[in-house]
Amino acid sequence: MSPGPLAGVRVLEVGTMLAGPYATMMLADLGAEVIKIEPPTGDISRQVSDSYFASLNRGKRSVCLELGTEQGQHRLAELVADSHALLVNLKPSAILELGLTYEALRRSNDKIVCVALTGFGLYGGDDPAFDYVVQAATGIAALTGDPDGPPTLPGYSSADNSTGLTAALGLLAQIVSGRGGQIDVSLRDVMLSQLNYHASAYLNNGVHPQRRAGGAHSFYVPAQLFPTAEGYLALFVTHDGFWRSFATEAGLTAGTQVPFATMAERAERREEVLAVVSEVLLGDTAAGWEARLKPLGIPAAAVRTLPEALDGLPEVVVDAGPYRLVGSSIRIDGYQPDYRPPPALDEYAQTHLRATKPE
């Protein structure tokens, strides 16, 4: 096996809970050395549960520093001098007060890449910016749920995870550039960016997003959840070829005639299409439809619980010491991540830190 693509890259993390630690864990999975800088009490996520902490911090090192003290700042400067990047996931005032910015740290290493991961931007204030709050504030909750019911949330930390991915991308892009600098990534901006086509439709055509039954797509029809004889089916018909195949399998065709044959017609006659599809899907179970449609190349899946999905995909589960976790979603030929357990608090003593400087 070859070394990871990020072997030799050292990333410092001053993170808490989810978004920042998730970003740096992805980098650790790709071979980077990630040093998690924690206060003496540790990242607060250690208090949630051991498995929660492991799911965001496998493969890292832990060093305790009191960043508000002169000694802590001195040790931070030493670490920065030997590192490629620093990712910080704190409120903006704390980032600025503790000197965790490029402007403050360039004296120690003018090539250091500093990533500030915040709720509303490094200079956007300290308003609380937890994942669910941001989903509510950016229109995501308003788009989610039954149209006759209240707005709802997807049930997992989509804003935190998405912002972590974005922060990792920005960090790597700046490292590749060979220049140090400040990167500013916020939960608000990431989630608005991910509403891309909804935002474009409103900004350019004045179209207000609608919450639709079954989580239906705003244009593709049929593309949503449907009840079946047993369970729910996700059906996602994006082009006319898929529709022809589905209509034939479902018995909707009359000879060679395919009803609602074009994408534009299906969008225009949405309610008629949904009525026909809803009725025919009641003729089989979700598992039955999935088995029938997948061989035809039609995007369809029975709704499963997370345990059902994991039990059916044992290859995605890895061992990291005593923990069973979902492994990296990035598969690279010839490379297998070293899934080490999460670090004990301050287990990587400062005297054992690697002394080599990044090139």
From TrEMBL:
One Gene Ontology MF term: transferase activity
Broad enzyme group: transferase
Any Pfam family: CoA_transf_3
Gene3D superfamilies xref list: Crotonobetainyl-coa:carnitine coa-transferase, domain 1, formyl-coa transferase, domain 3
Organism of provenance: [Mycobacterium] burgundiense
SUPFAM superfamilies named among the record's database cross-references: CoA-transferase family III (CaiB/BaiF)
Keyword Transferase: yes
EC code(s) of this entry: 2.8.3.-
UniProt protein name: CoA transferase
Keyword Transferase among UniProt keywords: yes
Family matches, as InterPro entries: CoA-transferase_III_domain (IPR050483), CoA-Trfase_fam_III (IPR003673), CoA-Trfase_III_dom3_sf (IPR044855), CoA-Trfase_III_dom_1_sf (IPR023606)
Keywords: Transferase
